[in-house]
Each structure stands twice: as structure tokens, then as C-alpha cells.
Amino acid sequence: MKSRRNFLQKLTLSAVSLPLVSSLQAKDAHFWADSADYQGPVLRVAIMGLGSYGTRVAEAMKDCKKAKLVGVISGTPSKITEWQSKYNIPEKNCYNYENFDAIKDNPDIDAVYVITPNSLHKDQVIRVAQAGKHAICEKPMGLNAKEGREMIEACKKANVHLLVGYRMHFEANTLEIIRMRNEGELGKVLFFQGLSGFKIGDPTQWRLNKELAGGGSMMDIGIYSVNGARYMVGEEPIWVTAQETKTDPVKFKEGVDETIQFQFGFPGGAVASCLSTYSMGNLDRFFLNGDKGYAELQPSTGYGPIKGRTHKGPLEKPHVTHQTVQMDEMSDIILAGKKPQVPVDGEEGLKDLIIIDAIYKAVKTGKKVPLKIV
Ligand code: NAD
Description:
The chain is of the alpha/beta class. The chain is built from 11 helices and 16 strands. The protein starts with a helix and ends with a strand.
């Protein structure tokens, strides 16, 4: 009843005082849903970068209750037309990479989800923030910690949220392991193993171009083991060691890592041993060992269903499309101030970038790199 009244109030407001509504920042004037299964604010999202993952997010958002795809930003006019008819996107919510700063004058878009090649994230997120819109950014948030800090600073200055597309932070089996660990069911955590890799195809793709990817497998898939080690162990690493292996220097050029093995030490005494690779398939596994029990996820970070088991038996949490849950949860974070169980904010993205910087440094120097992540 209360939200229906709110909804009607919004309607009345928009009918009698349009100039007032359009002068408000979109983040202050929420669009409300008033359907049988959800009554409340809806995050209106524009996707920037209509590639393969952007398409996956758009499809998943069809099932969102609290988030809605309302706009696109793309450099390819034919894709814009295709998305307009597929997702019912009005012309006034379509932009390209040159003109998207004008989104600041569009009260019908609350947030922009940046899903472009890695090296573009920093400047694009900063422009989104300067346009007064919340930014959701794909992983890796930037190319290094310096970029990450600049992005956080710009979003703080513009008073908008910066969230990173860490979809596993909302996955039910993953969260169940975190619950078990927090409640002491695994005992003292002593070891984590993270294996993240796939066989990469087309040698001409941006993922194998240092300028666009910022590195190789570590930036793209190894980051899942970096991030996973942190949320599975529940602590921040205090040192890193790492070694690189390259079997195909033609495909994996200078600065594009093919395989990196890396190790972390944690303040509580746990150690982690991880692998990031572009040269092996069937490599998507997390294993956490404590002195009272263990937890295993395999697959651990693919699009699912995620399969898990612990010393107590199989994990049976049902599969829900990750990006649907993620976008509904991100709507709650941005519009309702919800605190997620595992953070997905810019600071969280920055922590992974600090660690990745240290991994590359450890590869280069062959030395153990100490870390201080607060
Ligand atoms: P993709 O190549 O399929 O799509 C990238 C899009 O960016 C394309 O539409 C392309 O046209 C556009 N683009 C804009 N400027 C470009 C430029 N200068 N060069 C090349 N392309 C340009 O890539 P993707 O798989 O969709 O990955 C995009 C981002 O999403 C990456 O940061 C990646 O790490 C991330 N990603 C995340 C997940 C996840 O599960 N969270 C999964 C896949 C990709």
C-alpha cells in the first residue's frame, strides 16, 4: 500500500511538475515498479559495449525485477538498431562513444554498465561519473591500482556509486561456503587452491592485445582466483610469490601472460596456491581446507550451475542466472543502500588490482612481494 502510494505520488509529481523532476539527478528520482511480484525502485541501466558479455547481461536482465535495461552506448550503429528492437530501447537513450557524456541530461538513465575491453574501463567510468550516473564496471576494474584509485576518486567526487561486476559475490553455493567458514564449520582455514583457465582461440582478439587487455590470462581469468582466494579464505593476503610459464611466445606476445602460477600468504597462517592460464581447459576449481573440514567448488566461477560439496555433503543451492541476481542485488545496493555479504564496490576492485600489480612484480623480480591491503 505504502509503495503504491509512493508510486502514485511519483506519477502525480511527474504530471504536475515535469521541470522539477527532470532537474533532479536520476539517482534521486527513482523509477518505481508496482507489479504483483515486486513493488519498489528500479535501477534503469544503459549498457556500454554490446559484445558477447554485454549481450549475456542484457538477456539476464529480462528476468530482473529491480533493474531494467533502458539504454545503450555503442560504436556500431547496426548493433544499436538491433538492440533497440530486441529490448525496446527508445532512440533518446542511445549513445555512441563520442557523445555519451550527454547522458547527464537524460533523467531516464540511473547507471551505466561498462562492458568494454579492459583498457577502456578507466576513462569510460570516469566519464560516466562526471555525467552524474552510477557506474558498474566489468572486471578487471582497471589495468592497475593507479587506475583503480583514479576511478574511485572520480566516483566519490561525483557522489555516485562505483560497483564491479563480481557476479560470484551473489552466488548461493559460494555464499553458503562463506557462511560455513564464518561459523567455524571448517575450523581454522589453512589452505586454498584456485585454478582458473581456459584455452583461448582467435590470436587476433583484444584479449591477446596488451594495449587493450593490459596483460594476459591474469587480467581476464586469473583474477577469479585472486578474488576467490580473498572471499574463500576471508582475509587479505600479506605476501605474494609468482612464476610465469610461456609455451607459445608467438601467440602470447611480450606483456601478455599465458600461464602464471601464484601463491599467497594470509595473516591467519593460511596459504594459497593458484593457477591462471589461457592454455588449458577444464580449469575452474576452488578448494578450501580447514582443520575441521573442507569445501570444494567445481565449476567455481563459470556461468553455472556451480557445483559444490563440503565434508558434510553436496551443496544443493539452486542455480539462478548469475547476472540476473547480480543486477537485482546491485539495484538494492544503489537504490536501497543494501550492504552485500561480500563487497562489490570500487575498493574491492582496487584490492584485486593491488594484488595483480604485486603478482606481475613477483614474476618480474622472482622475489616474494609483501602486501599491505587494508
Ligand atoms: P567482446 O569482445 O565480446 O565485447 C567487447 C565490446 O566492446 C564489443 O562490442 C566491442 O565492439 C566494444 N568495443 C568498444 N571499443 C572497443 C575497442 N577499442 N576495441 C575493441 N572492442 C571495443 O568482449 P567481452 O567478452 O564482452 O568482454 C568485455 C568486458 O567484460 C571485459 O572487461 C571482460 O573482462 C568482461 N567480462 C566479464 C565476464 C564476467 O563473467 N564477469 C565475462 C566475460 C567478459
